[in-house]
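Memo subject: From amino acid sequence to discrete backbone structure tokens
Action wanted: Derive the backbone structure tokens from the amino acid sequence.
How to read it: Take the token row as a discrete description of the fold.
Attached in line: The record itself begins immediately under this heading.
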Amino acid sequence: MSANTLKVNLPERMVIVDARKRRILSAVVDLYIRTGEPVGSKTISQLPDIHVSAATVRNDMAVLEELGYLEQPHTSAGRVPTFNGYRMYIEEISAEGTLPQEERDRLDEMLGDESQLTEDLILQSATTALSQITKCATVVSNFAPKYSVISKVDVIPTGKRMYVVLLITSDGKIKNRACRLQFDLTHEHMDFFKHFMEENLEGVSVSDLSEEKLEQMITAMGTYMMTLSPLVQGICEMSKDLQQNELYMTGEQNLFSCDDLDKAEVAKFMMHKQELSGLLDDSFQGIKVMFGEEGNDFVIGNSSMIVSKYQKGDHTAGSLGVIGPMRLNYAKVIPYIEYFTEKISHLISDDDDTPPPELECIGQTEPPKDPKPEQ
């Protein structure tokens, strides 16, 4: 995906207008983003790339208002963009080009040594860098794998009656759960568990790991059922995690320091930020634009969220986006989002054929968000 082919998700109800009106609309949005003040026709007519009179501009702005792209907050004031006006503006600037090579090199430096980055670290580094550059919050959603299968299950003793269950999938996901058992496991117990997992779980699709299936496995363990059932329960919890979209957010402090956003609404949003997963699905193409107070679950008023998707091989793997004020510098932010989604797609696709790490290294690659051991 390149900037020249990037398209905004425009609602079907939007009417496409002629080139002159699009230039006028872009000029209004650009000035409003910079000043926060309603824009008048005289101001627009004096711009170097607008070659018509103030009267013509005024007429075109009236048409744009009638079509729902501009609105007039007060009778005597200039005009400001609506949600749809922002969307058309974003589509217009999306075709203006890519980042210069020196800026791409700077972003690569911010990501760090690519050879040392796991998939989770790639996502975390990209969101941190994007947040620092845009001065906004950044969010990344890692979609639940649709084509992944279980490639290995193992159990490792870590202390008296304490064991870690490891689960590795074909797409490189690694999960672990610490379990406290009633008894220390013998070599016979551990050998049985490993062989039982090989026969019953390896090669099974992640999407098929239902509670019912795992309960059937516990019953099939026979005399080992009481001793080993906590380990299977740990697998059940990990399978639920694997089947849910994962969401990371960075730069939340930028939202609290933004004068355009209500601090109470930001605080409420942060308490329920995991609900964003439903908005960051794979049902859109190109750039997806959402605004606060537009009838969706994105609850920060006067805000915007710009999202693009990244790929892993031939499949959509997740979404990366920026959350900030509605008066966001879209011309600056969109090329950064595009570059990072391209970069993430390249890095995680290159790593797609890399064999999973050795078991003794797994603890170093597991992200820190997993639940604490059972007490």
Observations:
- The chain has three domains: 19-93, 101-143+245-353, 150-244.
